[in-house]
Amino acid sequence: MTERRKKKPFIERDISWMYFNRRILQEACRDNVPLLERMIFLGIYSNNLDEFFRVRVASQSRIAECEDRSAAEESAHAKKVIKQIGKLNAQYAAEYSTAVQQVTEALRRENIYLLTPGELTEEQSRFVHKYFKEKIFGRTIPIWFSATKAFDSANDAYIYLGVKMLRPGCKSAYDYAYIELPVDTCGRFVQLPDEDGRSYLMYLDDVVRHSLPIVFEGLGYTQFEAYAFKFTRDAEMEIDNDLRTGMMQKIAKGVKTRKRGEPLRVIYDKDMPRDLLRRVLKKLDIGRMDTVMEGGHYQNHKDLMSFPDCGHKHLRYEPWPSLLKKDLDGPGSLLQRVQEKDRFLHVPYHSFDSFIRLLQEAAVSKQVTAINISLYRLAKDSKVVKALIGAARNGKKVTVVIELLARFDEASNIYWSKRLQEAGAKVIFGVEGLKVHSKIVHLTMKKGPDIACIGTGNFHEGNARTYTDCMLMTAAPKIVKDVAHVFEFIERPYNPYKFKELLVSPNEMKSKFVHLINDEIRNKRAGKPAYIKIKINHITDPVMVTKLYEASQAGVDIRLSVRGNCALVTDVPGISHNIKINGIIDRYLEHSRIFVFAAGGEEKVFIGSADWMPRNLDYRVEVVTPVYDPEIKGEMVRIVDYALSDTSQGRIVDGRGRNALPDTGGAPLFRSQEALYKYYKEENENQPADADAQEA
Question: What digits encode the pLDDT tens for the residues 656-677?
Answer without folding.
Answer: 999 999 999 999 999 999 999 9
